[in-house]
Amino acid sequence: MRLGLVLVLVLALALVLAVGSQPLDHFPKEAHSLNWGKFSGFWYIVAIATDAQGFLPARDKRKLGASVVKVPKVGQVKVVIAFSRSQGCQSQEVTLKKDRKKAVFRNTLKGVKGFHVLSTDYSYGLVYLRLGRTDHSYKSLLLLDRQNVSSFLSLREFLDTCYTLQLTKEATILPKDASCAHTILP
Ligand SMILES: *[C@@H]1O[C@H](CO)[C@@H](O)[C@H](O)[C@H]1NC(C)=O
Questions:
Q1: Whose CA is closest to atom 1 on ligand 1?
Q2: GO cellular-component terms in the record (predicted)?
């Protein structure tokens, strides 16, 4: 009886793991008809995965990041990002332009090759960021949230997407210290 129950639980767990580890078959999925007006405003960056070596500071210096998104006009977004680095809290602002054909924003002069909102319900957002110059580029996945915490489901989607992007080992949930994030509160 006991053994039977354990077996059922093990099987159920194996099933969950098998289903959970399927790569997204239609990646990169761009949020359909994203409403930039609703997406704009202040976001916390609650988790990050990046293959840019040395982007994240030492464990004890990690903090929540933040981003403020503005839409000055159609086809253009202004993004400010604040992030705790080893040198301290740093913020940067960049204006991105939409690609003529694809649903991606970029500013190659400033080293932003792509800013894709992969998915959002406007309370959380999953952003795939490609940074770099011509020959070299880094990929990062950001989990944005209007709150300083993430929901279980959005975190799950973040981790699934990390898997697709082969960033699983780099996935980092940031400590809930908002001191850097709040430096760019509108
Ligand atoms: C997170 O946000 C809540 C609600 O806005 C606030 O009460 C709490 O102090 C925040 N936590 C941290 C660690 O900043």
A1: 148
A2: extracellular region
From 42, 146, 148, the mutation candidate for ligand 1 (largest count of ligand atoms within 8 A of CB) is 148
Each of the 186 residues of the chain gets a pLDDT tens digit; together they read 566 666 565 555 554 555 444 444 444 556 667 899 999 999 999 999 999 988 999 999 999 999 999 999 988 999 999 999 999 999 999 999 998 888 789 998 999 999 999 999 999 999 999 999 877 889 999 999 999 999 999 999 999 999 999 999 999 999 999 999 999 998
Burial of 173 (0-12, 13-18, 19+ CB in 10 A): middle
Residues with CB under 6 A from ligand 1: 148, 176, 178
